[in-house]
Amino acid sequence: MFAALLLATASCGNSDNNAKTPKPKPPATKPAAPAQPTPMMKGSGSFTDADYKRRTAELRKLIAAKAPGSTFNFVVQKPFIVIGDEAPARVEQRAISTVKWAVDRLKSAYFAKDPKHILSVWLFKDKASYRKHTKALFDDDPGTPYGYYSSAERALIMNIATGGGTLVHEIVHPFIEANFEDCPSWFNEGLGSLYEQSSSRAGKIVGLTNWRLAGLQRAIRKNEVPSFKTLTSTTSRQFYNQDPGTNYSQSRYLLYYLQEKGLLRSYYKQFVANVKTDPTGYATLQKVLGRKDMAAFKLDWQRYVLKLRFGG
Ligand SMILES: [Zn+2]
Prior knowledge:
The protein is built from 12 helices and 7 strands. By secondary structure, it is α/β, with parallel strands linked by helices. α5 (185-194) packs across α9. α2 (88-109) links the parallel β2 (80-84) and β3 (119-124). The protein has a 5-stranded mixed sheet. It has a two-stranded antiparallel ribbon with strand order 6-7. Helices cover 46% and strands 11% of the residues. Zinc ion (ZN) binds at residues 11-12, 169, 173, 189, 192.
């Protein structure tokens, strides 16, 4: 029994007004395919040890050039390279107890393909290091104090002092990118945020209730939560920039509900299979739930969510 309770504080959820905070599937990553394949462009999961060495050398060069006074420890934890400025044993421990732990379980639950590139996972030891190095290494000034995924930098970038939950959340995004190309933001963020507080149940990863519950319960009591039709039809811009305050939590607790009813994995598989004809996942949701009347379902779901508890 793995005793991992991956404590979360928050996620890339406050990406709203930060143009530099990469979104899960920014269009910028798509047209980037160069005419000539490079080792980084090989098929998922086909990277050799030499590819990891080459990428590690590139990253060491980047540090030497942009943050010459800083010392980082490297751990190759496939399909990632984990880089941290905590003590070597601590970086190693995080690579195993958080990164490997989550990757193994997420892959067995959902993802056949690894990310298309060798991604680096930067674990900055505290807020000062996070601020200093996001600027120095990536010329970034992130809006989130916790961490984010940068598709452009091929990096997950964390202030690890805020906990491992955000890291698990962000790990979901490059796997979605590699396995569910047309995934809408609501599902991408719902799944990421589901696992920002997670544990193992019978060897499988499960999301637990977390800090996002209270705000959702408040919105439910005020009758302010949009319909699932509205939520699932949001574009990425609407999801991130026109969030009524419940987009993440509504998505998260819809997926939590499906998880607890034993429907989440089946929903994911059917959503991926049918995304061309049902790009929002709404019809597939109705099918998996066996519900035609989604207004009635929403009332049932709201009652369910109001009974959930977090932290006591
Ligand atoms: Zn996210």
